[in-house]
TrEMBL record:
One of its GO terms (biological process) is phosphorelay signal transduction system. It catalyses: ATP + protein L-histidine = ADP + protein N-phospho-L-histidine. This is histidine kinase. Residues 437-448 have a biased composition (Polar residues).
Length: 457
């Protein structure tokens, strides 16, 4: 208001001076008329000038206020709210976050800030409750699948071969259910699976991954690697490979095989999975690369409802610093390269297998899934467990491996071709050898008395 009065006084002084000058320039008889007219004109001009000045000043103040408000809202959106959301996700309450933001958010509209932070707090509590419920359900399914697999293993050692094939099918389906539960656990931040106390060789890791997918018969493994994955990461590496193998079999023709190659480098172990499908379009390739990227954290809002495999692989890659790449396959489809870093890879010292301990009929039934070494190229290492004081039976404490060149599908086909009922009194000492390739793919992912891993509850 002071500025308006100042401008008005200046305008009145100027117009008064001009009016006096004009008045004295005319004749004496016309001065009264000219002075009255000039005075009225000057008064109107002063009023108009004062009003215009007042409007301009108000407009300037309003513009400055809007600019401050815009700056505050931009800071609210870009800095304050994301920081508050992170604090709430870390476990802080909405009231605590608002108290911490007091001086920092002086230029931010307090009403908007309070409402936004409290709404974020409510949403985060709901999200945490939903994630905890999903993680709990996944853990229960994991425990049930583990228990069912143990029961199936026990039955596989007691029943005749005409029932054993059906039990193996149930075993395979249960393993796939366990993989799905592990995937849900990964997405919800829960424990993804078991923890092994010792390294698992790549051969067993690949067989375990094959055993968790539906079309395992189409997977051909080409590996002569003697490397092993450290125990705490073996289960997650196995899970990631299973998801990639499953994608390769699903997005290629049923008649096409999926080939898996293993190569040891100075920087770790590289596993390449190639299929003969139709390849990936640029948009699909971009989505796949974003899903397995280790640079961005998991955002469940971007997770598709039907394709969770690559998202799970990305979560496991971020956890263990795995690297996943996509490229055209030499077979015409898509090739996926998974690099396991050197810190997760060790080279165990090869040992001569100890002499085999005497085996009773009960031992044969309880170890129906174990495999005897069949030729010189077998790379399995069998460790005899200490015999009990009142029993001379021995147990295998290391998962045996199939001979190189023998595929899982071939072993199952040979089993189905030679399936004949036999008498229950006969010692079925060859059951484990004939079904070992299939069972070991399952057994490498199931708790065992000698495996040394912890179950998920």
């Amino acid at each position: 208001m002071t500025d308006v009065l100042l401008y008005l006084l200046v305008a009145m002084a100027v117009t008064a001076g001009v009016t006096l000058w004009v008045t004295f320039q005319v004749d004496t008889e016309d001065r009264l008329v000219v002075a009255s007219s000039a005075g009225a004109l000057a008064l109107g001009l002063c009023i108009a000038l004062a009003f215009s000045t007042h409007r301009a000043i108000r407009a300037g103040r309003t513009t400055a206020r809007l600019r401050r408000l815009e700056t505050g809202l931009a800071r609210l959106v870009d800095e304050v709210l994301p920081g508050a959301a992170r604090r709430i996700r870390d476990g802080a309450s909405a009231d605590t976050v608002l108290a911490e933001l007091g001086p920092e958010a002086a230029d931010v509209p307090r009403g908007v800030l309070n409402a936004a932070v409290r709404e974020v707090g409510v949403s985060e509590r709901q999200r945490s409750a939903a994630m905890a419920a999903c993680a709990n359900a996944a853990g229960r399914v994991q425990a049930m699948a583990t228990s069912m697999l143990a029961d199936l293993r026990e039955m596989e050692g007691r029943h005749a071969e005409n029932v054993l094939g059906d039990l193996l099918k149930l075993d395979h389906a249960t393993a796939q259910t366990g993989r799905l539960a592990d995937s849900i656990a990964v997405l919800t931040g829960a424990r993804s699976g078991r923890r092994w106390t010792r390294p698992i060789v790549m051969e067993s890791v690949l067989r375990g991954a094959m055993g968790r997918i539906q079309a395992y018969q189409r997977v051909q493994v080409h590996s002569s690697s003697g490397a092993a994955v450290v125990g705490y990461a073996a289960e997650d590496v196995m899970h990631a490979l299973a998801e990639l193998m499953d994608n390769a079999t699903r997005f290629s023709a049923p008649s096409e095989e999926v080939h898996v190659y293993v190569e040891e480098l100075n920087t770790g172990v590289v596993v390449t999975i190639e299929d003969g499908g139709l390849g990936m379009k640029p948009q699909a390739l971009a989505r796949a690369e974003a899903a397995v990227s280790t640079r961005e954290p998991l955002d469940l809002a971007k997770v598709p409802g039907t394709r969770l495999g690559l998202v799970v692989v990305g979560s496991l890659a971020r956890k263990h610093r795995l690297q996943v790449y996509f490229r055209p396959s030499s077979r015409g489809g898509t090739g996926v390269v998974l690099r396991i870093p050197q810190q997760l890879v060790i080279h165990p010292r090869e040992e001569e297998p100890p002499p085999a301990a005497p085996r009773t009929a009960d031992t044969v039934r309880s170890a129906a899934g174990e495999t005897a070494t069949t030729n010189a190229t077998t790379t399995a290492v069998l460790d005899a467990a200490p015999a009990a004081a009142d029993d001379d039976t021995a147990e295998i404490t290391e998962l045996p491996k199939r001979p190189r060149g023998e595929t899982l599908a071939a072993a199952v086909r040979a089993t189905e071709a030679g399936r004949t009922p036999r008498k229950r009194t006969e010692k079925r000492t060859d059951i484990g050898a004939r079904f070992s390739a299939f069972q070991q793919g399952r057994r490498s992912t199931t708790p065992d008395e000698t495996a040394g891993e912890d179950d998920t509850l």
